[in-house]
Design brief:
seven-stranded antiparallel sheet; 4 helices
Length: 166
Amino acid sequence: MDPNRYRFRGVWRLAAPAPTVYAALEDVRNYPLWWPEVREAREDGPDAGEVVVRALLPYRLVIGLETRRRDPAAGVLEVAMRGDLDGWSRFTVTADGPGGAPCRVLFEEDTRPGKPLLRRLALPLHPVFRANHAVMMRRGRRGLGAYLAGGGRAHPTDDGREAANR
């Protein structure tokens, strides 16, 4: 087992039509509105940008994103990641019930830390890093569900950032 390689896979079930969920996931600039761990999102062009992420552990990751696949008909969004994490990440959004709702979101990621400190700590902290990612993904699912239930509207939080209606 390579302690510096992380493969993640998870399923989100959301009570919104698949096209609505896809559109929200495609709009990375608005992730900070509903995903608490995504602190910043910047667009560098139509197919490139950067996110700043900080979950429970006391470090932040700056991850450059470049679109590898954007296919609304298939419900697939895939990006290459570079920077503090190197690899790829993909959301596949499909209808999972009558009338297009609820929908199913399959999340897949294959990554390695680009940050030297994270590579050095990979062996002793591998389970902690995986748990940190799991918490981030759970909060992302809940945040997106609340954001979509509120019609994609956000309100300011106590720290001045925008957050989904909860």
